[in-house]
Design goal:
Layout: E1 5-7, H1 12-18, E2 26-27, H2 44-60, E3 67-77, E4 80-82, H3 88-98, E5 102-113, E6 119-130, H4 135-143, E7 164-168, H5 171-175, H6 179-188
Parallel strand pairs: 1-2, 1-3
Antiparallel strand pairs: 3-4, 3-5, 5-6, 6-7
Length: 213
């Protein structure tokens, strides 16, 4: 692949996941408010895509060439959209709200060609069932400072807290970057990336329902 790949993100988790593609990329942090909802956004899926496009578009404007990737993950509990908590109190309240319940995790994906301005977006939804963790477990997790940079105030991959009982859909989507869906967008942008390029994926990805031909 000769096209320059740029990740528009400050998330270390997205950097780690993108590295599984086995292709070089560089990181540019977008100057976009994380929780800024575009006026045109409607449904949560549309909001996630719009936020991802805003991030990718902001970086693409500063670049002369390359394919810019961005993502935005939101948690939806019923009709409520839960972003990143503002403080420890909000994080604890969010975790209590989600405890023992099912919610949706939606990641919007965006790919923008900085040279031509061409753009594409999609989203992935995973249904997550949280376990009945205790108030003490919540307090310990919040005290570690983990929830503040995470939509829904939790990380599915946290081995100490282990907040998730089960999930239906893409595991990497809940972490923050659904790789197989991203491959689809990158291939549409002309990049020669296949599933065979993926390196050392988490074992949970073996059953991902998104298939790239």
């Amino acid at each position: 692949m000769t096209v320059q790949l740029i990740l528009a993100s400050r998330s270390p988790r997205r950097r780690q996941l993108l590295a599984h593609l086995g292709v070089p990329f560089r990181v540019v942090v977008p100057e976009v408010e994380e929780n800024a909802a575009p006026a045109s956004s409607g449904q949560p899926e549309e909001l996630a895509e719009a936020l991802a496009l805003a991030k990718a578009g902001a970086v693409a404007k500063e670049e002369r060439e390359g394919i810019v990737i961005a993502a935005d993950t939101i948690v939806v509990d019923g009709e409520a959209i839960l972003g990143k908590p503002g403080d420890d109190s909000e994080a604890a309240a969010t975790l209590r709200r989600l405890r023992g319940k099912t919610h949706r995790v939606i990641t919007g994906l965006a790919v923008v060609d900085a040279g031509s301005g061409r753009r594409a977006a999609s989203h992935v939804v995973t249904v997550v069932q949280m376990r009945q963790y205790s108030d003490g477990e919540i307090a310990a997790y919040v005290a570690r400072g983990e929830p503040l940079d995470k939509a829904g105030a939790y990380a599915i991959q946290d081995e100490q807290f282990q907040p998730v009982a089960s999930y239906d859909g893409c595991y990497c989507n809940v972490v923050g970057l659904p790789l197989k869906a991203l491959v689809i967008l990158l291939r549409r942008a002309g990049l020669d990336i296949t599933l065979h390029s993926l390196q050392d994926l988490p074992p949970q990805c073996a059953g991902c329902p998104i298939v790239v031909e």
